[in-house]
Structure formats: C-alpha cells, structure tokens
Design goal:
heterotrimer; A alpha/beta; B alpha/beta; C mainly alpha; A: alpha/beta; Rossmann fold; 2 domains; 7-stranded mixed beta sheet; 3-stranded parallel beta sheet; 13 helices; 19% strand; elongated; disordered N terminus; B: alpha/beta; ABC transporter involved in vitamin B12 uptake, BtuC; 6-stranded mixed beta sheet; 10% strand; AAA+_ATPase (chain B); P-loop_NTPase (chain B); ATP-binding (chain B); cell membrane (chain B); transport (chain B)
C-alpha cells in the first residue's frame, strides 16, 4: 500500500508542479517592456534533421539580431524579445500540447510555427482558435489555398507543390524546345504526402508538355538502397531524372547515380539538394544538379545574410526554406512594429501589408506567398534559382549536367 | 488494513478519474491538453495490460490498432456521423485483432514482441502503398468540429469503460483462465481451457479499446499520414508505462501512465534542450530505484516459461534443453533429481527383490476397453521415444506403466493427454478416436492428468488452482457452488482448510496433492498419474496409496507411471512395461514383474542403461 | 544478367543488414540483454568515424582500429556498471528481459540526448570509397562491397572463435543454459560481459562501415535498432549465422521486389517475409525449438 500512496503523492506533486511552475503572469499588453515569443520545434525525433537546418537556427539568429539592435521597435521604444521554447519531439500530440502551454500558461505574445507540413497542420486549428498569426512556412501542400481560407490567421510561404512541379516541367520544356534534351523522363518519389503531391503534379505537367515518363515509381521512406531503382531508371536511358526525396535519400540517390555513372542530361533531386551538406558531400560533382528551391546569390542582402548566418549559426543555411523562414520573421517583425502587439491587427497586417525582406519585397496573396523560387541549380559552387524565369536574378539552366567525376 | 487492501485500488482509480474530471472545469486549455494526454495513455496502457498483464505477452502492436482507429477517422470522419465512425473503427479493430491474434498467439516471448512490432510496421507500409497507388495522396485531412473538451470527455468515458471491463474480466471465468495461461499454458490446457480462444478474446477486447482511442484522438491532429498515425514510439511508451506501473494488476498501468506523462511534460517544458538526457536518467533511476514498480509484471512475466515443481526443482526452460515432462523422461529427470542417474536405478533394484506381492482383487469390467492405444509412435530428432506401443486399459482398472528411465513412459502419457502430437498410431478413448486432439478437447472427453514435475500455479490460491479446472471442465460450474466443490476436493486430498493459501507456498508433497485435486476437479473418467508417489516418505506413501485405492473404488480408471514397486504391487491390476520406447511386457502385475526380460531391463542390461 | 544483378545488389544490401545485426544477436543471445540503445551505439560510432575522417583525415577503415577497442571498453563498462545489478536482481530470464528493456530504454535517451547536444539534429555524411567497381558485369559501390566483406569476415571469424576456442565454447554454453554453465565452473557474468562488450564492438564496427555511405543524424539510432531486431529475431536469437542468413534474405527480397515488382513495396515485403518466417518457424530460421 505504501508504494501506491507514494506514487499517488508523486503524481499529485508533479501535477501541482506543472500547473504552477510556469504560471508567470504576462506583462500588461498595452505598454510591453518585452515581447514574449514562443515556439515548439522538433529537437528530438525524426523531424530534428529538417528542423535544425531550416527552422531552429533561423529563429535563434533572428531573435539574436533583433535583440542586439535593442529589440522590436514598437512606437518609439525598443522592446526586447523574450523566448520560450519547447521540444515537440516530432509528435503531433506534443506539438498541440506545447502550443496550448505557450498560449495559456506562458501567455506568449506570438508563437512561431513548428517544422513540417504535418505539425503545422496539427497546430493550425489551435492557433486559429486562439487568434495567433501562423507563419506556416514549412507547409508544402496543394491544399494551402483552401487552408488559408479556413484559417485566416495562417500564411503559407513555400509555394504549392504543383507550382514547383509545373515550374520544373516548364524549365525542361524550354530546354527540349531548344533541342538540348530529349523527351524521356524517369521519376521516383518518396511515398509520403510531399513526394506524392509533387510527383502527381509533375506527372500531369509532363503529360501535357509531351514528355514521355519511362520510369515512374514511389519508394517507402527508410529505403536504404537506391541502386535497384536507379538501375531500372537507367535502363530507360532517360534524358531527365527526377527524384522527389528527403535529404538522406537525396544524398543516397545522388551517390548511387555517381557510382553507377548514371549521367542523364538533367539530374533533379530534392529536398536536400539545396543543403550545404550536399555541396560538402559531393564537392565538384554537385555542379549542374538541379533541385527544389534556390536563391539569387548575387543579391547583396542574401550575401549579407549568408555571412550573418555563418557567423551566428556556425554553418551555411540551406538555399530554399531557410531564407524564406527568415523573411517570414522579418515580415512578422515589421507587422508588429507597424501595429503593435495586438495579434488581430498583426494578422491583418501580415495578410495585406508589403514587407521588405532578405528575399526581396514580400506580399501575400490570399495567405500565400507565390513569388518564390521553385527550381535551383548548383552552378560554380552556389545554388542559384533558375525558375520561375521571370524572377529577379534567374539564371539560365546549364545542360547537360557534367558527367560525374571521381 | 484489509479494508484498504480491498477498496484501495477502487479508490485510487475512481479518485484519479474524479480528479481528472475536474480539469476541464477548473483548468486552462493547457491543463485540458495535458489531461487528454494523461487519459489517452491511461486507456492505452490499461487496455494493453488487460491482455498483456495476465498472459505475459508483450505486444508492440499497440500503434497498429491506434493507427487503424486514427485512419478510420481520416477516411470516414467527414462521411459518417461520429458515433458510427467510432463503431466502424471498433469493428475494424476487432476484425484485425482476430486475424492477427489467430496467426500470432502461438509465438512466445521475444518472438512475439518483435513480431508484433513488425506487424505494426507492415500495416503502416501497406496503408502507405495503398494511399500512394490507389488514393494518390498520402496525407489525409480531418476537419471535424470536435474540440479538445469533447475529446477529453470521450476519452474519459473510454477510461471508465476500460476499468469496468477490466474489473468484470478479472472477476470472470475468462479472467481466471488468463491468469492460468499466464502462469502455465500447459496446465491451462489440461484444465480444459481453450487457451487460443481465451487469449484471442482478450486480445480482441484490448485491441478494440486501443483502436477506439486512436479514433477519438484523430480529430485533434487535423492532418494524418501513416508516419503520424503509426508512430512506433507510442507502442514503446505504452509498454514502458504499463511495466513501470505494474501490468499485473488493473490499476497498475495508471500508476505508470499518470506520473510518466507528467514527468515527460515537466522535463520537456523546463529543459527543452536536454529532454532526452534527463528523461533517460530519470528512467534509469526509476528502473533501479523502484524495482517493485514492476512487481506486477515480474510476477507474471515468467509465465512465458513453464514452471515445474517447487523452486529447487524448477526448470528454467532456457536455451535448448527440452522442457520438463514434455520431451521425454531422460532430459527432465536430470533436472528433477541429483545428477546421478544411479540413485534411481538402485532404488528400483531393491524394490525388485523378490517379495511377496499383494494383489488386490481386480474388477475387470468386461466390454470394450476405456482406453485403447494402437501402434503409437513419436520421435524426437533421431530418438524414437515411443516406438509402436499398443495396450488397452479396461474400465475401472488401474494399469501401471513402468520401465527404466528414458524408456518413453512420460512421452506415452504426453501423447495420450494431447500435450504433444503422435507421429503415428491411434488413441481411442471411450469409443472415439482422440488421436491428435488438443489437450483441452481431450480433457473434455474425460482424461485428466498430473505431471511428473509438479505444475501448480504458484501465484494462485489452492482454491483457485482447483477452481480453474472446475470452471473449464466439460460441465463447468462457477461461483459459490464451484468454490464449495473445490473445498471438498481439497479436503479429499488432505488439504482441508488451506483454500486461500497461495500454491507457491505449499511443500512439495502438498503441491502434488493440490495437483491431484485439480485433476479430480475435472470429473475425469481416466486419470493419468505421472510418478505421483515419487519422493514421498513412508507414511505419506501409505496415505497416497490409500488415496489412489479410494479413487479406484469410486469407479475411476487410472494409468500410473510409477517406480515405487510397493505401490505398483498393491494398486495395479495390470502392468505395461516399456524399454527404449517399446512395450516389452504386458499382463498381470505379478507375472510381469517376474518376467526375465523385465528384470533384465531394470537391472540395466542391454540398452536401457542411461 | 538481371538475376546476377539482383543477387549481387541484394547480397550487398543484406550484408549491411547482417552487419548491423550481428552485435545485437550476441548481446541478446548470450548476455540476455535486449539492448534498445544498440542503434545509438552505432550512431555514436558513425559520428566518431565522421569526426576522424573530416577532422583528422583518418580513413574509416583505419578508424576501426580506434573505434573497436573503444566500443569494447565502453560496452564492457556499461554491462558492469548498469546491467550487472539487474542481472543479479533478476529472478528469471523474463524478469531480466523486462528490466533490461526498461534500463536500456533509458540509456537510449541518454545517448541520444548527448548526441543532440554535441551534434545537433542535422544530417551528417561524407564520401569515402564511393567509387564504382564492376563484378560479373554488375556495378556496385566499393564502400558497400567493403561493408559486405567485413560482414562476412566478422561472421566467419566470430563463428570460428565461438566454435573453436575455449572462451567461445564457454560463450555458447552460457547462451544455451546459464545455470548449467555455472555448474561446470564457467564464470557466467564475465562471459556474459565479454559477449555484451564484443557485441557492442561489432555494433560499432557496423556503425563505422555504414557511415561510409549512409546519411545519419543523432535521431536515427532507433531505426537501426529496429532493423537489427528484425534480423536477429528472424535468424533466431543468439545465432550469428542465422543473423547473417536473415540479413542476406531480407536484402535479397528487398532488391528483388524493387526490381521486379514495385519499389513501393520493398519494406512491406521485408516485413511480410519476417512475419512469414516466424509463422512457419516461431523461433526464427535457426532458432532452437524450446523457449
């Protein structure tokens, strides 16, 4: 019996502890002497890899820079940011709990989003109910327009998967029209929502553009040997190889292609192609590889950002969602500085305002940022954006990709 | 004190639930979110332990059912009314549980553990493949207007239900059956329990609860894909919570789930960057510091092993050694007695010295024999343990099955009682063929047995040991009547008034008595005794012989494997002598014992040497 | 041609599975510790190889010389400090199984947490011996081939040690029956400790070798543990050759399904094969019938 009662006591004690530990009253909103910003991000579990390249370092860098400048400029005062951070353990339920905690226990003024489509959608309804602006940057789904209508507080920043696929096919079509490549395509995709939405859109676009899909398969996440698929893809002698895959798979696919001397004229992989790890791993062999994302490396702001990121985080950023994440924070910052810490006003400002960010001037349309890079390519050790071609700084694609070196 | 013991668990469970019920009324949204987590893990861990606690099967398939529930909502949530969705989820969970249970429950120990894990992964892979190739999209969106508080109350109802069901099951025949299975599956079958059905029933109940929990939780996440719905971590957390709390008792998992969920939360909230390290350390400390926390399972877990005899004689069942009483006398003999095989031979030899054998009058009821064995055979590897054995047992008689160690006697009994299937030959009992039937079916035909190495259920009381047989024999009874019958039987074997004593505390001889009472409780026509008289002192031996004689007077037919020659001479009407798997003599006890080939076999001539 | 291709690629992939599982079969089969932190040890070895290669330009195969003894010592220490108290406390094998699951579950979190603190959550990887070599007309990667070679050498070497040496015989005796082993004056705890440490070293070897071609991060240990567990159980607990056979079989079927059926079904086929084997042989390919 003693053990039982001890356990009960412990449980009650723990409960009391959780309820009181962080019940710190938020300061008066009208005259804030600090702005509390909270986030729950994957610090453990399978999403850690993505979160710690694209999202978490950006949050830390931004807070550091804002506070170094004295804080957010509200009215004529500088108000420092105070951060509350949790680990969502790559788990929807934990993410929800953490958001509830940030809102009702920590009473933070703003909440930054978690990483990945799944977690952002999981916390979407709560953030909407509580009226927090939701910068769902790393959410990549074709249903984004519908979600943006459902949750007016939410904004989506990566473009739609279908846009990425359509832009990719547009680039390829141009190349074909120029006679640089033939019509045969081999495509593989990881079998989760990300891979399937991209490949489904690409399949349609390829069909419409008159390409021939000679090999078209999906593979389960966690596959450790890409060679079998690549060999079958290779057997169709494609002009274009497309792999919609996650970072570890992207590296494995590229590695396997190199080993097999699989040299299609266009080699497109991603997500993960835009990671600094890709360049580090493949060095000169990265040259000519296309992937999702990209940036205008000649832009002085991004050059500056690259340096700040290297200095502040200790490594380079990826060239897709990372700068966009930073831009979303800049937009948030400017919105707060324009209208104060009134969340409803900030939501409204974010949706309608125009913001000056490291990726240029940003203006959301229907909750979506549409003007983003879809396709990039490694050229001279930098991952330049090549499509949409109308974007400022878009480079011409280099085709064919040089053959793999040793 | 007894009142606390009696009502403590009920108070603990209802107190915890009552405290949780206050959360939506008093707490913030965050507290409700936390309470949802606590409740969901209480339901999951309790449902898990409903099956795994008593049986000792550690299942990692929790998330398979949880995910099935969640996916059912993802697919049907916007199509059907909510209660119907839950019902469909429960039905799907039930069907999957039955299919899975039928195919897997014959695995044991770690093989079951990893199998169940593989199963969850397989289901996840298949769902993914289906969604990719048929649905053309992997993630699904669940936009249901079911708020956090509604989810809380649904989980609350589920928690109440799981405790009520658990309580009812523990009080029922099914509950007793699972306890017996958990302790010793062989004994369970020899009590007439259809172990597969019992396990399947509870596995299904447990799985349905888990499935419905998944369904109830799903609207919370808005977006569901296989990685979210089938996250294997859920299975591990459930196991860990149930084990820490103690899976052996109904309220145990609650004691694990509540503190662990809160602990996860406290650590996660206060040390987000060192969550893993701290959690791990706390975990290790708990494991070392709270060994009794897992007491419930520690007691049950070795149910996977098969127990035999009092502790000093217990076979650990490890490695490749044949299990006691199953694969032949030679192997088990080495465990049960001192390693020197000579000790037995010598005692047998002295028994064989010519002495005037008493022979009781034998009432050979004419007509067809009760048991007829024809050309029975069984091999283990290359060893022919039973090699073309044939004999008959007349109704109302006692037949001695004798022979040197390793001659195949116990194997013959095992074949008759259905413990192992024969390779060839036929067994006819009471006019019908029973060859190859399962033990529980054979028990229902009217054959009961004791084991060479006593197998009583240590964790159960003497009365419950007997009750298990009464509750699952051919014409079962339950409740007061059964309890009364158990007491009578215990008194008959000399254990009067010891009904509530745990069987594990009995002396060797008393556990033999208990085992006999359990066999008698099955109301058998034929009783198989495997060296029931071995190891008794002279007084006990006389009592034992008198007891067996009285059973015969009651009309029971008995086959006894025995080495005690006095008993054989005084009790047996006929004897069948085996050596190296064959019958070498069959006839009246006195003649058989005098036959030269029998004497030679016992004296260790030829190949009987072991 | 396709057949040779499938066979060779399948064997190479299977060799990796076997390589990553052999240590676990030793730890679980002999020392009776179901080590859930197994994959974290592997990841730790992979990180060590990464640091040695990128930081000190020590090639992984040379790094093995450092990693192996280190892992042996560390695992020996883990066994003596963490697990011996549990072994002493356990009344039965099942009790030890429960305790070791719980304790190593804790260890898993600690090791993973340390990994996160040092390396963060990012992916790591480097290229070493990532060159093609042609065998029987089939192109394979040198680093994967090397890993297969090591798997074979380690399996055969260990098998030889276990069957031909005195200590090996003692290890097998403990695996079969610790109680009986005690009766013939085998120091069961020392032998079990040795087996656990050797298993840990094998596991680390696996980690170093796969780091040559897999991308990894601190969160990935669990995946390795799970795969290893499947291989170990399918092969039969404690049976090195069983682990080798199971690993190769899984690799073969995965490759065959990818080439002949649908790459989307590879893992499903793997699990189906595993479940099928257990249904036919409830104690694995080479498992002993009892228990």
């Amino acid at each position: 019996m003693r053990r039982v009662s001890a356990a009960v006591l412990a449980a009650l004690g723990a409960f009391a502890l959780t309820s009181t530990a962080s019940a710190q009253a938020a300061s008066d909103k009208a005259v804030p002497d600090k702005v509390r910003i909270g986030y729950a991000i994957s610090k453990t579990g399978p999403f850690t890899g993505g979160a710690s390249i694209t999202t978490l370092p950006v949050y830390q860098l931004w807070v550091k820079e804002v506070n170094a400048a004295g804080g957010l400029k509200i009215g004529d005062r500088r108000v420092p940011i105070e951060v509350v951070e949790y680990d969502d353990r790559s788990n929807s339920e934990e993410a929800i709990k953490a958001i509830e905690r940030l809102a009702s226990q920590d009473k933070v003024d703003f909440i930054l989003p978690p990483w990945s489509t799944g977690l952002n959608l999981a916390v979407g309804p709560i953030l909407n109910r509580l009226g927090y602006p939701h910068l769902a940057v790393t959410t990549n789904t074709n249903r984004a327009p519908e979600l943006a209508k459902r949750w007016p507080n939410a904004s989506f920043w990566l473009g739609l998967p279908s846009d990425i696929s359509v832009e990719m096919v547009a680039v390829l079509k141009t190349l074909r029209d120029q006679g640089k490549i033939g019509p045969t395509v081999a495509m593989i995709a990881v079998s989760d929502q990300f891979g399937i939405e991209l490949s489904t859109a690409a399949r349609d676009a390829f069909g419409k553009a008159g390409f021939k899909l000679a090999y078209d398969k999906s593979y389960p996440a966690g596959t450790q040997d890409m060679q079998p698929m690549l060999k079958d893809a290779m057997a169709t002698s494609p002009d274009v190889f497309v792999s919609f895959s996650y970072p570890p798979d992207t590296l494995a696919v590229t590695d396997a292609a190199k080993v097999l001397s699989f040299n299609p004229k266009v080699f497109f992989t991603g997500v993960g192609t835009a990671f600094p790890l890709f360049k580090q791993r493949f060095g000169g062999n990265a040259e000519g590889v296309m992937g999702i994302g990209g940036w205008n490396a000649e832009s002085p702001r991004l050059k500056d950002y690259l340096e700040r990121h290297k200095a502040g985080v200790g490594r380079e950023p990826d060239r897709w969602a990372n700068p966009i994440t930073f831009a979303s924070l800049q937009a948030l910052q400017q919105a707060i500085e324009r209208v104060g810490v009134d969340r409803a006003a900030v939501v409204k400002e974010l949706q309608s305002g125009t913001f000056d960010t490291i990726i240029g001037t940003v203006k959301l349309e229907g909750g979506l940022l549409k003007d983003v890079w879809a396709v990039g390519q490694w050229q001279n050790g930098e991952f330049y954006g090549i499509a949409p071609s109308k974007k400022d700084g878009a480079r011409a694609a280099i085709v064919p990709k040089p053959s793999w070196g040793p | 004190m007894s009142a606390i013991l009696r009502y403590g668990p009920a108070a603990l469970v209802s107190g915890t639930l009552a405290a949780l019920a206050l959360v939506p009324l008093l707490g913030s949204d965050y507290h409700v979110a936390l309470a949802v987590a606590v409740l969901s893990y209480i339901v999951l861990a309790t449902a898990w332990a409903l099956f795994s606690g008593p049986t000792g099967y550690v299942s990692l398939a929790t998330v398979a059912f949880f995910g099935i529930g969640a996916y059912t909502v993802a697919v049907l949530g916007e199509v059907l009314p909510w209660p119907v969705v839950l019902l469909v989820a429960a039905l799907i969970g039930l069907v999957v549980a039955l299919v899975v249970g039928l195919s897997t429950l014959r695995l044991s120990g770690i093989y079951f553990v990893v199998f169940s894990f593989g199963l969850a992964e397989l289901i996840r892979q298949l769902v993914t493949w289906y969604e990719v190739n048929v649905g053309r999209s992997v993630g699904r969106y669940v936009f249901l207007d079911i708020g956090q508080t509604a989810i809380f109350w649904q989980l609350f109802g589920l928690a109440v239900a799981v405790f009520v069901v658990g309580w009812l099951v523990r009080r029922s025949r099914l509950g007793l059956a699972l306890q017996v299975i958990g302790e010793d599956e062989t004994v369970a079958r020899h009590c007439g329990i259809d172990t597969t059905r019992a396990k399947l029933a509870l596995f299904a109940v447990s799985s349905v609860f888990i499935t419905v929990t998944g369904a109830v939780m799903a609207p919370r996440w808005t977006y569901i894909d296989p990685a979210i719905a089938f996250n294997p971590l859920v299975s591990f957390q459930v196991v860990v919570m149930a084990l820490l709390g103690g899976a052996g008792v109904l309220y145990g998992p609650l004691l694990g789930a509540v503190p662990l969920v809160l602990l996860f939360d406290v650590i996660g909230a206060n040390f987000p960057n060192h969550f893993s390290i701290l959690l791990g350390l706390v975990f290790v400390v708990v494991v070392y510091g709270l060994p009794r926390g897992v007491a419930g399972l520690l007691g049950r877990a070795n149910s996977i092993e098969h127990r035999a005899g009092p502790p000093s004689h217990r076979v650990r069942g490890e490695g490749g050694s044949p299990r006691s009483g199953e694969t032949g006398e030679g192997a088990s003999r080495g465990y049960a007695d001192a390693p020197s095989p000579g000790s037995h031979a010598s005692s047998v030899r002295s028994d064989l010295s010519p002495r005037a054998g008493r022979r009781e009058t034998c009432l050979d009821v004419s007509g067809e024999p009760l048991l007829e064995i024809v050309d029975l055979s069984k091999s283990f590897g290359g060893v022919r343990a039973v090699d073309g054995v044939s004999f008959q047992v007349a109704r109302g008689s006692i037949v001695g099955l004798i022979g040197p160690n390793g001659s195949g006697k116990t194997t013959a009994l095992n074949l008759i009682s259905g413990l192992i299937p024969p390779r060839g030959g036929a067994i006819r009992f009471d006019g019908a063929e029973i060859t190859g039937l399962r033990s529980d079916r054979i028990v229902h035909r009217g054959i009961a047995r004791t084991f060479q190495l006593v197998r009583v259920l240590d964790e159960l009381t003497c009365a419950d040991n007997v009750m298990a047989a009464i509750a699952f024999r051919r014409h079962p009874s339950w409740g007061e009547k059964a309890r009364h019958r158990a007491a009578t039987l215990l008194a008959r074997v000399g254990l009067a008034g010891r009904d509530e004593e745990p069987a594990g505390r009995l002396t060797y001889i008393d556990s033999k008595r208990l085992e006999l009472a359990r066999a008698l409780a099955l109301d058998p026509k034929l009783l198989l005794l495997d060296e029931w008289l071995a190891g008794l002192n002279p007084t006990e031996l006389q009592e034992g012989i008198a007891l067996i004689a009285s059973l015969k007077r009651d009309g029971l037919t008995i086959v006894m494997v025995e080495h005690v020659m006095d008993a054989i001479r005084s009790l047996c009407d006929r004897c069948v002598v085996m050596n190296t798997g064959r019958t070498i003599a069959d006839g009246g006890t006195a003649e058989v014992l005098a036959a030269p080939e029998v004497v030679r076999a016992y004296l260790g001539g030829g190949d009987a040497d072991d | 041609m396709l057949l040779v291709d499938i066979l060779l690629s399948g064997l190479i992939l299977g060799g990796m599975y076997a390589l990553t599982a052999m240590g676990l079969t030793l730890q679980y089969g002999v020392a009776r510790i179901l080590n859930l932190a197994y994959g974290e040890v592997m990841v730790a070895a992979a990180f060590t190889a990464y640091v040695l290669f990128t930081g000190a330009a020590v090639v992984p195969l040379l790094g093995l010389l450092l990693v192996l003894p280190l892992a042996f010592a560390a695992n020996w220490a883990i066994y003596r400090v963490m697990l011996v108290p549990l072994v002493r406390r356990a009344r039965t094998r099942a009790a030890l199984e429960t305790d070791s699951i719980l304790a190593t579950f804790g260890l898993l979190f600690v090791l993973q947490g340390i990994g996160f603190v040092i390396f963060g959550g990012q992916y790591y990887g480097y290229a070493y011996l990532s060159a093609p070599v042609s065998i029987l007309g089939t192109t394979v990667a040198v680093n994967r081939l090397v890993a297969l070679g090591f798997a074979a050498v380690l399996a055969v070497g260990l098998y030889w040690l276990l069957t031909r040496t005195r200590t090996g015989t003692a290890i097998r005796a403990v695996a079969v029956n610790p109680d009986a082993a005690r009766l013939v004056a085998i120091d069961v705890q020392t032998i079990a400790g040795l087996a656990f440490a050797a298993g840990g070293a094998l596991c680390a070897a696996g980690g170093v070798l796969v780091s040559m071609f897999l991308t990894f991060n601190a969160a990935m240990g669990v995946l390795f543990t799970m795969k290893a567990l499947i291989v170990v159980i399918m092969g039969g607990v404690g049976n090195l050759l069983g682990a080798l056979a199971a690993g190769l079989l899984l690799g073969l079927i995965e490759t065959a399904v990818a080439r002949l059926v649908d790459p989307g079904l590879t893992l499903a086929a793997n699990y189906a094969l595993f479940l099928g084997v257990l249904l036919v042989r409830p104690t694995g390919l080479f498992g002993r019938p009892a228990r």
